Structure formats: structure tokens, C-alpha cells
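[retry 2/3] Glyoxalase: previous attempt timed out, resubmitting with same input.
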Amino acid sequence: MSLPRAYVEHVAIRVPDVDHHVGFFREVLGLAIRDEQPADGARPRQVWVLGSVQLIEDPHFAGPEGRLAHLGIMVDDYEGVLARAAAWGAKALPAGPNWLELPGGLNIEILQASAGAVEAALAINPRA
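[retry 2/3] Glyoxalase: success.
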């Protein structure tokens, strides 16, 4: 059995003020907004910044514990990864079968990558 290939597509963190953090990523690091979801009832405002960061607005968050919301992981074998994750004791969360809680509490979101995307991402040498 060959193992799947995967990469961390984003890290979701809670912040008390999304605009302040977006400003930092833009003005200090030059990273633009990739996507944005406004607050909608029970869902908080969320912004995805280029560079794999998702900011989730939580004005009551005082940190530092509990800041990490989840890891978004792109995979080349979605169904195989979900089956292997269940065998390892991962539990599906109410958000859907691709939202998993690992033993110990870490939450991950499994995302199916388009053909060749994982190989292309893994081929990048971030230190080059």
C-alpha cells in the first residue's frame, strides 16, 4: 500500500481583531487577502491570507491557549486518508466527514487536492 501525499494548506487561528492582523500581514509581510467570509449568525468573520493563514475573529478571545482552531491539509487520496484516519481513532466532527478530531484534541480539515497539486506544492523548496 502506498501512502498518500499531503501538505498543510492553511493554519486557522483565532484572533480578537481580524482587521488588525490582516493589516500586519499586508503592511509588514506584503501578504494580501486570498478570501474572506463575513460573519453570518453563528459563524464568525474569517479571512484567508496568502501564505496559508486563516484568521477567525473572536472578540472575546484572550489567548494564548486555544488560539489554534485547526489545520487544513490538502491530500491526493481523500477517501483513503479518511479511512486511515478512522482506523487511527480520528472522529468526524459535526461540520462534515472531512473535519476530524484526533485523539488528544487536534482538529484537522482534510481537503482533496486537484490532480498534481500536492506534488507541485511538495516540490517547492521554501529555503531556496
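[retry 2/3] Glyoxalase: The chain has two domains: 1-11+70-127, 17-57.
[retry 2/3] clearing retry counter.
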